[in-house]
Amino acid sequence: MRASRRPTAVVVGAGIGGLAAACALHRDGWTVTVLEKRLPIEPVGAGIAIAPNGLRALDTIGVGDRIRQLAAIQGSAALRRPDGRILATTSADAFRVRFGDPMVLATRAAVLDALLAPLPSDTLRAGTVVDVDPGAADRPAAVTTAEGDRFEADLVVGGDGIRSTVRRCVLPDQPAPRYAGFTTWRAISPMPSSPLTVGETWGRGRIFGAMPLADERVYWYATANRPAGQRLADLRAEVLAVFDGWHAPIPDLITSVSSDAILHLDVHWTATPPPALHRGRVALLGDAVHAMTPNLGQGGNQALEDAVDLAAVLARHDAVVTTALPQYTALRLPRTSAVVRKSRRMGAMGQWQSRPAVGLRDTVIRLSARVSSDFALVPLDGVMGWRPVPRS
Q1: pTM here?
Q2: H helices then E strands: how many in the chain?
């Protein structure tokens, strides 16, 4: 790190990836400003799965153990049919043994709180970014906001999500994320009176998943094939209709929350990989540059990986940004593109609708699970096995 002055960074977006990048840079001696459209931060998304690779990323900024304390999945998890018949099972112990850490289901608010804790109180500023100058080796990058502020910095990090303004400014030819063909509903419910069936249930073009949280509540999510842009006023009635007749406690979980407590989003993904994850002095991370379907639960985890690898590469190059960022692209682009494709393939299988195709899918899953008890975990090896890049 150069001794003459503290390098400066502006992070656009106070989501999980943006705040993780802010924490990692702050720990390395950077002066960091985080710009967010709305303050205080709204923890949109209800719940999030922090996988072993995400926990290792959080370890590098000192908050991994705080998230591990929220682990609540015990015993077996299963993949089921809508009538409740089990297709495959795995266990929390088997998952932890294979990958070295648990899968932690946490509220997004809890994760954001953990990432905010290490940052100075004046790090966050309200600001809606409207323009980004990527800068060059001989001049800083600059961010302009709708409020009339202009911020110059050695580095700008675009962590502003799937509709990223930073991406549009610095990669104007990059296609916008594409609709995946299905929508999703998410909510947090009280623990049901009937036994909670942990895991996912796959039907014809529909999926319902439920996982326990540490505070005796349940995070559930549901997906269904449908055209983009459909919105109904009564979300609870809509989800109940989509999953009518499915096994307990799915109906109880849905009816236990109000429509206002259900988050509804159409799913988009980065079908065309970007040419780079940077331009000039600007680095992009997370959904801003590699949005993925939720089927592997890796959107937030890949953003965490991006954040800590970005900081590590900058540290290795003594904060010389224009030298470090091409290395960041070389390190992260192949991996994130592969995870995007893997998640999309998994999502496509869950979208199958024809009875013959779904029957074949279920039969293959059931028989494969009989052959190998680790059937459901094997495809995750390359995803969960990530380690942070060495810093020297």
Answers
A1: 0.96
A2: 13, 18
Q: β-pairing, 155-158 with 282-284?
A: parallel
Residues of the chain with pLDDT under 50: 1-3
Which helix (H) or strand (E) segment holds residue 219: the answer is strand 217-225
Q: How many CB atoms lie within 10 A of CB 276?
A: 19
- Answer yes or no: are the C-beta atoms of 115 and 11 closer than 8 Å: no
Q: Which CATH architecture has domain 8-73+104-177+270-348?
A: 3-Layer(bba) Sandwich (3.50)
Please tell me the distance from the alpha carbon of residue 164 to that of residue 245, in angstroms, as a whole number.
Answer: 39
Q: Which helix (H) or strand (E) holds 225?
A: strand 217-225
Neighbours of 44 (CB within 10 A): 13
Q: Tell me, what's the pLDDT at 2?
A: 45
Give residue 43's pLDDT.
66
Sheet holding 150-153, edge to edge: 129-133, 141-145, 150-153
Looking at the chain, the whole-number percentage of residues with pLDDT higher than 70 is: 98
Ordered by start, the domain boundaries in the chain are 8-73+104-177+270-348
Euclidean distance between CA atoms 103 and 54, whole angstroms: 9
> How far apart (Å, rounded) are the C-alpha atoms in residues 336 and 332?
6
pLDDT of residue 271: 97
Whether the Cβ atoms of residue 316 and residue 392 lie closer than 8 Å to each other: yes
Radius of gyration, alpha carbons of the chain: 21
The pLDDT value given to residue 1? 45
Q: What is the pLDDT of residue 378?
A: 85
